[in-house]
Amino acid sequence: MDVLNLSQIMMQFGGVVAIDGLDLEVHEGEIVALIGPNGAGKTTVFNVVTGVYEPTQGKVQFKGQDITGMRVDRITRKGIARTFQNIRLFKEMTVFENVLIPQHMNLQNNFFSTVFRTGKARKEEEGMKEQALELLKTVGLLEVKDEKASSLPYGQQRHLEIARALATKPQLLLLDEPAAGMNPQETLELTQFIKRIRDTFHLTVFMIEHHMDLVMEISDRIYVLDFGKLIARGTAEEIQQNERVIEAYLGVSEDAENQ
Fold first, then answer.
1. pTM of the full predicted structure?
2. How many angstroms separate the CA atoms of 46 and 72, rounded?
3. 172/50 Cα distance (integer angstroms)
4. pLDDT in tens, the chain (259 residues)
């Protein structure tokens, strides 16, 4: 089943076409990567999926429902969460608070119950705290739950940002360059971490990434953008052998170089 389907997406800013007729599908349970040179339009795709931008034309479907141009908060409630290339944590709050706050997205209590802290509201709050602790345990951050987010090492901050996205209980998780700024050992650990949370939380993962070792190791399928246009799609092996991809990344094809 298609969890995410983009059909003929175009995103235009004035005279600049950032995405040009993109068709893309992400199937349930997959890890799918979107790659391409800087400025290819990758983050714009994420912004269209999550409602930051309404596409100039085309349709975004999530589990068969049209979510094109829907508000960011409504898309999150439907089951799509994302991280960002530049980590966006509540840095002066604790690790625990960073994971607790996003759960309010799914509060069931009404305004009256929340303000006057009825028994139902208190029970829901306690449940949220238990879920936050369980989530931190699952992602390996329980021991630092009372630390400020800003005090964590870089790799743990990345894990915390993913945990915060998981707190909204997504079905589709979008990761925007999760390995950015990581050393080789941290990147290796992240590869296993992404696989583990995919399996533990029964997620579908759609990610942007420049670390090719991670992309080739983890992806079920790969899409390649160049100047907003889709130039290739396929398995890691197919993408590695694709001459258009080589040309986009290196600026010249191997055949041309040898002539």
1. 0.86
2. 12
3. 11
4. 799 999 999 999 998 999 999 999 999 999 999 999 888 999 999 999 999 999 999 999 999 999 999 999 999 999 999 998 888 898 899 999 999 988 876 655 544 444 445 566 677 688 889 899 999 999 999 999 999 999 999 889 999 999 999 999 999 999 999 998 888 888 889 999 999 999 999 999 999 998 888 999 999 999 999 999 999 999 999 998 898 888 877 554 444 444 4
> Where exactly are the structural domains of the chain?
1-79+170-259, 89-169
* In the chain, beta strands by DSSP E: 2-13, 16-27, 31-35, 57-62, 65-66, 80-82, 172-176, 204-208, 221-226, 229-234
Q: Which CATH entry fits the domain spanning 1-79+170-259: 3.40.640.10, 1.10.580.10, 3.40.50.300, 3.40.50.620? A: 3.40.50.300
Length reported for the chain? 259
E strand or H helix at 187: helix 184-200
Query: Which residue is listed with tokens 């987010």?
Result: 149
- CB 109, CB 124: distance < 8 Å: yes
